[in-house]
Amino acid sequence: MAKCSAMAGRSASFYPVQAALQQKLGATGRTRMRKVWKSSCLAALGLGLAMAAPSGAWAQQKVLKMQATWPASLTLYENFTYFAERVDKLSGGSLKIEAMPAGQVVPPFEVLDATHKKVLDGAHAWAGYWTGKDKTSILFTGGPGGTFGMDYTDYVGWMYFGGGWELYQEFYQSVLKLNVVVFPILPSGPQAFGWFKKPIQTVEDMKGMKCRQTGMAGEVWQAMGFTVVNMPGGEIIPSAQRGVIDCAEWVGGVEDLRLGFQNVWKYHYSPGVHENTTVGELIINGDVWKTLTPQQQEIIRSAANESFLVWHAKWQRQNADALKEMQEKHGVQILRTPPEILLAFIKKWDELAAAEAAKNPFFKKVHDSQRAYASLVVPYKRFYFPPYSFMANYYFPEKK
Question: Is 131:119 a contact under the CB 8 Å cutoff?
Answer without folding.
Answer: no
